[in-house]
Amino acid sequence: MSESNQEYIVISGARENNLKNVSLRIPKRKITIFTGVSGSGKSSIVFDTIAAESQRLLNENFSMFVRTFLPRVPQPEADALENLSMAVIVDQKRLGGGSHSTLGTITDISPILRLLFSRVGQPYVGTANMFSFNDPLGMCPDCSGIGRSLGIDMSKAVDMSKSLNEGAIMLPDYKVDSMDWTIIMQADSFDADKKLSDYSQAELDQLLYGKARKVEMPFGGKVIHITVEGVIEKFTNKYIKRDLKTMSERTQRTVAPYISEGPCFSCHGARLSQAALGCRINGHNIAELSAMEVGRLIRVVREIDHAVAAPVIKSLTERLQHLVDIGLDYLTLDRETDTLSGGESQRVKMVKHLSGSLVDVTYIFDEPSVGLHPRDVHRLNELLQKLRDKGNTVIVVEHDSDVIKVADHIVDVGPHAGSRGGTIVYEGSFEGLLESGTLTGNYMKRPLQLKQACRQPSGKLSVKNATLHNLQNVSADIPTGVLTVVTGVAGSGKSTLINDIFLGQHSDAIVIDQSAVGVSTRSNPATYTGIMDDVRKAFAAANKVNQGLFSFNSKGACENCQGLGVVYTDLAFLDSVKLPCEACGGKRFKEEVLAYKLDGKTIADVLEMTVERALEFFQIKEVVRKLQAMSDVGLNYITLGQPLSTLSGGECQRIKLASELHKKGSIYVMDEPTTGLHMSDIGHLLEIMNRLVDAGNTVIVIEHNLDVISQADWIIDMGPDGGSRGGQVVFEGPPSQIINADRSITGKYLS
Length: 751
Ligand code: ADP
Ligand code: ADP
Ligand code: ZN
Ligand code: ZN
Description:
By secondary structure, the protein is an alpha/beta fold. The relative contact order is 0.11.
């Protein structure tokens, strides 16, 4: 290998998904940005080829024993991959973690803050552990460090006007004649026909709050020993004293109706013991500092003047500064990570890496501009550059032209999506891209047009005096029958206003978000949209057989692979190998099923069709309507049988949109629908939104994308800034007026 090749990651003959023998070189220790229409093959190169191979190589370093616990990564389809370094994927997956995971714990800032309190806090209390709500030494004993306490909603738990026989106890597990019901009644020989309101105080206490005790009870001809507990006592111990978020979703759903939640009565939400809360630095205790916005916290920390703690203060301010730099100064350290948005989660992960000391790593980002207002994109760029300057290779999938501009190298994938993509149409500098004549290059040069002829609203939906999170007594009228875009810098309050307040009042609205669709590996676009049902009927009618035959989930399934089309072969400790099923050749159906045809095609042939091809093939009215809807949202290139689990967040959002398109008179709410969309795809999206509005619907969109904002009928701009410096409506009106609105940052970027 030549010396100069060491400076590049070299990919030869990549063929994952739609890639057509792609070969390219990615410069190391530089920023390379992949762009191109959605479905063109960016992820197939970056995630399915580069990241997958790096992960696989990394796994090979571990012992056989450890490897059995690692995710199994098959070797990507490519002739050769050279000079890879360790890859770290910084994606938009939300940070889960339950109520014990906060911004402070996940960024490792909280431990430093605790250390600071243990060194200089007054009065002096003890070790850093004393300030941790995750540590038995520090946690509030009444809420176990959760900060909230749950109580039973008594009106939902017991009905005092009824007797036990009439079902006075409404908690789950106590249905009349159930095991628990029988035990509680027999243990104290309660009169099952007496209304609870007629019980003596002692009887009621025993029934509801009796402490656990062993009793003997006849059961099935024997005498058995059983533990009895008052019904409220038992429910409290079983559910309320534990962290509900760690229980199964089913349990949470069952229990939720009976409980109500409030701040902990003892620590008032601070999560810490009284000793910890009594300790202060410059008048603030640790809970107050954790509840302070990072932008203000960093100033307070800088004012602490204490020689002993100087190194601790330095490392604390360094990390806080990273949060400020990436535009998260409006968050607080005590914010629970599972309430952060996808974009915020990605930026938090980024901060973790900036504080780390890894070098020569390949960082891979998936549309890091998501959730960022144009004003803040430069901060993201600075962080990408910092990572590069530390000696790392930075690879970014991105559509935002302001991010693309800072790339050292650009790879434009296309020319179109799916089988009409999968090649590299341009490689080089930003200036070169503008002159390349590719879709991306051409769109970059287009000037922004502000919509002039805005639609007249048919009415309005009002939000009044909203104060949740940072909202400062917000009242706003959302016009109906038009396209409204809600915008503003990150943290200004857009999601709070729309997702929490507005949707709370209009639960009939249709929410089209980016969460995954389909729960099983067997769902695909055909099953999700209902096309499969009509197709099965058509096959059954044409061949005069039962339609169940044409389902790979039931009768028609290949018996060897159970309809999956692939067989997983476990090679003991090695990576499991996914092979096409030998019996059906990956077609998923039994041979006899594949003998039946519709206009010359088998059911397996149909599932291999792209939406575009299927539109040419089918004449069935319902099928054509559903296919057309998918085509309209820009999903022409996906095949009917592609597992939904392989779709990106943006594609999931569009497939949901496709299956909702035929409704009329509804309210649609979308959260950053341009995620994953190339500039040329955004035109399609706008057409769909306009079509929805023209059909009499109300469309409300949270967006930062200037192309979408400029085409709104009505803009609601939140701000002026994030967090406590936001939470107001700074502008309401049509695009032509926002450019003159003094307080609107968005207006400045549109003009
Ligand atoms: P991009 O990242 O540019 O949006 P992708 O690389 O995700 O595009 O997709 C390229 C093509 O490969 C698309 O047609 C997509 O539907 C298809 N594809 C992606 N992942 C899979 C998969 N796991 N199985 C089958 N097809 C896939
Ligand atoms: P945007 O959607 O404009 O980015 P958000 O509505 O998400 O803004 O946030 C507005 C403010 O409310 C921010 O200060 C944010 O930190 C805060 N906030 C949002 N969600 C929560 C939550 N679940 N708990 C506490 N604070 C929140
Ligand atoms: Zn408490
Ligand atoms: Zn099979």
